[in-house]
From TrEMBL:
It holds the Pfam family Peptidase_C39_2. Residues 250-384 form the Peptidase C39-like domain. Residues 28-42 have a biased composition (Basic and acidic residues). Residues 211-225 have a biased composition (Pro residues). It comes from Nocardioides islandensis. The lineage of its organism: Bacteria, Bacillati, Actinomycetota, Actinomycetes, Propionibacteriales. This is C39 family peptidase. Residues 28-49, 195-228 are annotated as: Disordered.
Amino acid sequence: MSRPRLFLLGAALLVLLLALTPLVPRGAEDDGLRPSGRDDGWRLSTSPGAGRVTRAMRAEIDRVVEAARATPLSTVKQPAARLVESQVRCADLDGQTYCLGIGWTDSTQAQVRARMQVAARTARTTSTETTGDLDALDALRRTASMSPAARAGADRRELTLAARSVAKVWVLRHEIQGVPLPDDFLQKHPEARAAGPALQPQADFTAPPCDCSPPPTPTPSPTATPTPEKTIADYPVEATILDPAETAEQTRTYWCGPTSMQMIAWGWKHVDKGQDYWAGKLGTTSAGTSIVDMVRVTNGNTGWDLPSHAGKYVVLDVGDFTFQQWLLLNMKHVVDYTAPLIYHPILLKQFYPYLDDDASGHYQVGRGYMEREGKPTEVSYFEPWNQQRFDPSEPFISRVQWRDAYRSYRANLAHPAHDIGV
C-alpha cells in the first residue's frame, strides 16, 4: 500500500475514534463503568444477588456502629424501655431502612422502638408454650450481654450483609407494592440487571424524572404506585416446591428454627445434616433463634440465594402489606424463585386449629399455594412443631400443611415483628 493511502486510512481511523469517544462509558466513584444515558438498555432482574457496599453505605454503617459505642453500656437487668433505647438502631442504606436485629422496614426508628418496647414488655406473657422464636426481650438481653467490641463487630457484620442485599428490597417493594425505582437504580445496582439484553428496550422500569424536593424519609411510600409488575392473575392456580419426604419434627421445644433450617437446606442439598448441626450454625440457645440468623444461614449454606432462585434472602417487614400483596409474594417465591419462604408467624389457636394451646413466635417453611374455586386460597408449609412429641395427650400435627392463606397472613401480622424471610 502506498504512503498516501496509509495516511488517508490513518486519518479516517482517527476521525472515527474521536467520533466514538463521547459514547465511551466513564467510571464513577463507586460504580465503575456505566453506559451513558438512562437504564433503557437493561432489563430488571427479579432476584438480585449480592451488591457492593458503596462509600455512602460504609459511612452510614460507621455512623450507626459508632453511635452504639457512644451509648452508655447497657446490662441485661435494665428495664425493657432502656434496652430498646440503647440497642434498637436503624440505618438508611441507599434509601431503604434497616434496623439491627429486626430487618428491612418502612417504619422510622422511633416507630420501631415504640413497637419493640411493647413487644419486650409483653414477651411471652400471653403464651403457654414456646417453640423457639427469639422474642424481643431475649434478643435485647442477648445483645446487652456482649462486650462493646463484640457488639460493634456483630453490628458491622449485620449491616454490611444488609447493605449488600438492598437491591433485593427495592425490587420486592417495586414488584409487590408498586414502589417506583430511582432513575439510576440499574446504574447503581448492576446486581439487579437481568442477564442478556433487554427484551423490550423501550420499557422503562424507573420512575419519571422529578424536580420535586426529596421526601423527609428516604423510603418511598408503598402507595405511590398501586399497580405491581405482575399480578395474582398472572400465576398458575396451584404450585408447590420441596419434597414432602424431606421433613422433620423438632426434637426440642425451642428448635423450630434449627428444624426449619434443616428442611430448607435438606430441600437444596437433598442431604439431612440434622437439627444439632443447624442449631450450631444459627447460634440457637434455649431462648430461641433470631430470624436475622435464619436469613444469614440460608444465604451462607444453601443455593436458594443464587440469582437463578431468590437472590439474597432478606428479613422484610410486611406489616404494611395487604393480604393480596402477601399472597402475591408467596406466589412469586414459589413460581418465579422456586425457593422456600421463611414464615415467621405467632402460633395462636385462632389461626392454627390444630394447636392444643396458644404458643410463641415460630418458624415454618413456606412452599406452595392453591387457589380454590369458591373456597379460600390455601398455602402449604412444612410445620416443625408437633405438640404430641412433648405431650402425648395432645393431637398429632403433620409436617406437611395446607391451610387457609388468610389465616397464615393474619398470624404473620400478629407477630410483633410482622416480618418474613424472602
